Known about the structure:
globular, alpha+beta
Amino acid sequence: MNDVRELLDRAAEGAGQPAFSARTVYAKAARIRRRRRAAASAAVLVVVAAGAFTLPRTGGDEDPAPASVASAGPSASPSASASAADREGRLAALLPPDVGEIQEVSLLALIKGATPEQARTDRLGPLDGQYAFRRDGGVGYLVLTLEDREAVERKTGRPADPDEDLCVRVGQEPSRTDCEREALPGGRALTTWRDTMDVGGDDSVGWGPELAGRLVQPDGSQFLVRSSTGFEGTGTQGPLLPEPPLSRAQLKELLTGPEVQPKG
């Protein structure tokens, strides 16, 4: 089981509707991508003859308006908006300017139309959240979540283990592509890998490739992160980025820095 793909399932726990399960979003992503690729292959023949290529856009000729939890349902309170703006600013301060414009969003609100209450999640880490990265006309996403020991035990039956090598395939679980594991000072272990998101199923959403990571800490807690090139289909905010919004080196620096750790 890919723990990173559980991030949105955790966000959906309070929704009360099975339709909000991230497992469904991911499990059905490949078929639409295959349909898009087949259509694109046919279109290329026409485009080559015409001598031009136009990237299809969703929602008209203008760039889609930024969306957030507040834009997906009833207006958020001023304190909630200020908190989101604070997280955006602190995250942006940790990254180089060329990563693009950063805005906190709710993927459940974008893709499934969840209300702010349904999309609400508990935040253990000060930068936990789902962020859109807009750059060069494309939109990618960063999802960062801290799970404490109790949360990991509820999900897996045991705490996170820094000695576990995630790059070694176990049983029938999918292998991790371009997987790198690094033992860090203080008994921590950081694993990053690439995910093509080519999973079976059928849905109105197709996810692009992404970088994923997990930082396991000696107290049995873990940080989970996705750096996604974006998605196509229902709720899309723009075309996929050519590469994940944060590189492997940037993911490592973010996860191992003090800014993501709870205070006190």
